Amino acid sequence: MNSVLKIIAQRLALGLLTLFIVSIVIFAAVNLLPGDFAEAILGQGATPEAVAAIRTDLGLDQHPVLRYFQWLGGVLQGDLGNSFAQANFASFVGDDSGVRTTVAQQIAPRFANTMFLAGVTAAIAVPFAVTLGILAALYRNSVFDRAANITTLSSISSPEFFLAYVLILFLAVLNPWLPSLSNIYDGMAFSERLEKTLLPALTLTLVVTAHMMRMTRAAIINLLASPYIEMARLKGIKPMRVIVKHALPNALAPIINVIALNLAYLITGVVVVEVVFVYPGIGQLFVDSVKIRDIPVVQACCLIFAAAYILLNLTADILSIVSNPRLRHPK
Amino acid sequence: MSSDAFKDAETLVEMRDIHMEGRSDEEWHPIIKGVDLTLRKGEVLGLIGESGAGKSTLGLASMGFCRDGVRISKGSVIFDGIDLLAASAEEKRQLLGKRIAYVAQSAAASFNPAHRLIDQHTEAPISHGVLSKEDSEADGMELYRKLRLPNPDEIGFRYPHQVSGGQLQRAMTAMAMACRPDLIIFDEPTTALDVTTQIEVLASIREIVEEFNTAAIYITHDLAVVAQMADTIKVLLKGDEVEEAETREMLSNPKQDYTKSLWAVREFQRPQKPAVQTGTTPVIAVQNVTAAYGKVDVLHDVSFDIHQGRTVAVVGESGSGKSTTARCITGLLPPRLGQISLAGTALPLDYRKRDREQLKKIQMIYQMADTALNPRKTVGEIIGRPVEFYTGLTGAAKRKRVEELMDQIELPASQFIDRLPSEMSGGQKQRVGIARSLAAEPEFIICDEVTSALDQLVAEGILRLLADLQDKLNLSYMFITHDLATVKSIADEVVVMKDGNVVEAGPKTEMFTPPHHPYTDLLLSSVPEMDPDWLTNLLQERGVDNIGDAAVGKMT
Question: How far is A128 from chain B (nearest CA, A)?
C-alpha cells in the first residue's frame, strides 16, 4: 500500500508543478490579447490621458513580470484580486469606499452553479454511458450495438445548441414537462433547482455519452480474446457475468480516463449550453470578462479550469493505478 | 494401465469425421481434415503433434467450443449422448465447467488478474448450483492440499500474480476439478514451466485424475510427457490423424514413418571434442562477474571460459541468470564487478565503449526469431545490413556476400532473398537470424534458447546447422538453454547455474555421469524420459517430497 501512497504523492507534486507552469501560460496568453481593459471600457472616445489614468489606477502600467508575481502571490494566499469592471464602476459612481467585490466573490456562486450542472450531468451520463457500453460489448455487432453507436455518434456530431433546441422542442414546448429556462438563484429548493437544471443536463448527457460509451465498449471487447476470458467462458459462466465480472475490472483504466476527460469538459466547456438555457454558470462570466478585458476574472477562470483538468486527470490516474490488483496487493 | 482396461468402459466422447476451418484473409482454410476420436470414461488420451497440427483446436472442439475465426464445418461431437454441435449455447454452457473442464497452457494468463484464486475456483460450482460458496471453498482447499500446494488453507486468498507459475498451474487443475467433471482437457499444461516444476505438476495431475477417475484429453508436443500421462496416444500431423495406439505399443512399435521420425529426434548426438590443452587462451573468459539490476545483485561471482571451436552450454531454470550472463558478455549490462576478456584482452564493460572490431567478434542469436527480425525488411536487407556495417562491402560485393551467407544457412538466395520474415516458417526465420550473426564474421556466438520456440524436427535441423558451421568456421558458442536434451546433443562443456551462481561446471561427459552436484542431479532426474514407467519409478524411488521445487527448497 505504501507504494500506492508514494505514487499518489508523486502525482500530486507533478500536478502542482503543472499548475504553476499553466499559470505562466495563462498570464502570458491573457496579456497577448489585443487591447486592454482601459481601451475596451473607454471605447471610441478614448483619449490617451484617460487610458493612461485608468491604467495607472489598475496598475496596468507596471512591468508584466512584476504583475505576474503580484498576481501569483495573491493567488497563493487565496486572493484572486479585484474585478476591474467592479472597481471601475465603483469609482465612477463616486462610492469608492474601498469595499470592492473581489473576483472570488464574483466567481464563487457561478462556479457552484457550474459544479451543480456538471454533477447532475455526470450522475446521469456516466452510469448511462457505461451501462450502454457494457450492453453494446455484450451484444456486439448486433442491431442493438449498431443502433447505440449510430445514436450516440449522431448526438456527439450535432452542434450543442441544436441538441438543446431539439430537447426544448420535445420536452418543454410540445410536451411541457420541463422548464426551458434555467434561471436558478440562491436559496432555491433543491428539487426546484434540479428540475430547472435537468434540461441542460440532458443536453450535455447527449454530448458526452458517445465518447464514454464507445471507450467502455472498446476496452471490454479488447479483452475478450484474452485467455482468462476464454477460461471464464469454458467454465460455463453466463455471458453477462463474463463481461461484468471478468472483463470490466480489467478494463477500468481506459474507461476512467475517458470519464475524467468528459467531466473536465463539463466544467470548462459548456458555455453554449449555458447561453441557450440562460444558466448562470462560470462559462458566461468567462466569455463576458474576455470581451471587456477584465483580466483578473479571466485569469481566475482560466486557473480554475486548468485546476479542474489537472485534478480530474490526477484522480483518473490514481484510480487506474489503484484498479490494478498488482499494486493493491504487492507480493 | 492398458487401454484394454477401457474397452468395456462406456464411451464418453465420440467425435466423428471432424473437419474444422480457420479464417484468415477473409478465406476459410482447413485446420482439421477429418479426425475421429473416441474417449471412454476414465481414459486419458494423449494428443500429440507439432505446432500447427491442430491439437488445441481439436481439444477445444471436443468441448463443443471454437475460438473466434474457427468453425467446425463437418462432423459430429457427442458427449455422453448429447450432440454438442446441435446443442444450444445455453445447453453447452450448462455442461462447461460442470461436466467438461479445461486447463489452459498458461495459468498465469488464464487466471483473471483481478480476482482471488479461491473466488475463481468457486465461481463454476456456485453458478452451476453444484456447491454452496462455503462448501466449494472448503473443497478447494482440500484439492489444494491433494495437489500439494504450500499453505493450502491460505493460498486461495492470494491474487494470481502473488503465486508462482507451477503453483498456479496446480491451482488451475484444482479449479477444473471443482465440479468433479467427467472430462478435463489439458492443453499443454506444463509447456511453460521449468523441468523441476513440471515434474511436480505432472505428478499431481496424474494422481488426481486417477483418484477421481476423470477422463482426460492431454494435449502436448512433448512425447516424454505424454508417455507418463496417457493411456492412449493419438498423433496428429497438419490436421490429419497419423495413428493411434495404446501408449506402450506406440512407444515400442510406432507404425507410421512420421511417428518414427518423431521418436528418432532425440538421437542426434555430437561427440564431445577433446579437452583443450591447459594454458590455452580462451576466446571468452568470464572472470568473477557480479552484476545487478538496480540495486539487487542477480549474478554472484560468475566465472567460466569458452575456448575456440567449443560449445559451452549454460543450463539452469528461469531466473538462474543465464541470459543476464549473456547480457554482461555483450556489454548490454555492464557488470558491477569482474571482467570479460576476449582472447586474453579485457573488454570494456559497456558495449558503447567497445570498438567495431571488438563488437563484431561477439554476436548473438535470439530465442524468438519472430521478434528479432524486422518484419518490414526482406531477408536480403536483414543480412545485408551487418555485412555493410562490419565489413564495409557495398553493391555487388555485398550482394555476393549475402548470397554466400544464405548458402551457408541452406536457404537458396534465389528463392528467399526478397522474402519478408512473415513469408517464412519458424525454422527458416531462425536460419536468417543465424546468417545475420555470421555476417559480422564473429569468433563467438551467444545462442539464447535458439531452439526452444521450435518444433523438435526443426530444432534438430538448426542444431545440425550450428554444429556444421562451428566445424567450418571454427566458431565458439555459448549455448543458453533449459533443455537438457539439447545440451546432450550439442555441448562440449556444461555450466549449471542456479540463482545467479555457477553450481557446477565441466566437460559434458563428466556432467552426465554421477556423482553430480545435488542440483544438477535434480535437474537431470527431472527431465522426462520416453519410458512410460519413468515417473512412477522416480516417485517410488524418491518420494513426492523429494522432487521439483520441494527438493530445491530443501537444498537452500
Answer: 24
CA A231 to chain B, closest CA, distance in angstroms equals 6
- pLDDT 10s digits, A237-288: 999 999 999 999 999 999 999 999 999 999 988 889 998 998 988 988 898 8
Å between A248 CA and nearest CA of chain B = 10
Distance, in Å, from the CA atom of A75 to the CA atom of A23, rounded to the nearest integer, reads: 10
Q: Is the Cβ of B93 closer than 8 Å to some Cβ of chain A?
A: yes
Best mutation target among B57, B84, B110, B163 (most A Cβ atoms within 10 Å) is B110
- CB < 8 Å to A251, chain B: none
Identify the H or E element spanning B185: strand B183-187
Identify the domain boundary among B222, B242, B261.
Answer: B261
**Sheet containing strand B215-220, strands side by side:** B100-103, B183-187, B215-220, B44-48, B232-237, B240-246
**Measured between alpha carbons, how far is A139 from B38 in angstroms, rounded to an integer?**
36
How does pLDDT run across B283-326, given as a tens digit for each residue?
999 999 999 887 888 899 999 999 999 999 999 887 788 889 99
Contact A61, A52 (CB under 8 A): yes
How many domains does chain A divide into? Answer: 2
Chain A hits for B92, CB-CB cut-off 8 Å, are 236
Q: How many residues are recorded in chain A? A: 331
Same domain for B255 and B374, yes or no, is no
Domain membership of residue B495 as a residue range: 309-321+356-513
* Beta carbons of A325 and B67 less than 8 Å apart: no
Q: What are phi and psi of B79, to 5 degrees?
A: -110, 115
Question: Looking at the 3D structure of chain B, how many domains does it have?
Answer: 2
Instruction: Compare all CA atoms of chain B with the CA of A248 and give the residue at the minimum distance.
Output: B114
ipTM of the complex: 0.80
Collect all residues of chain B within an 8 Å Cβ-Cβ radius of residue A249: 112, 114-115
Query: Domain for residue B506, yes or no?
Result: yes
d(CA B521, CA B54): 36
Same domain, A249 and A304: no
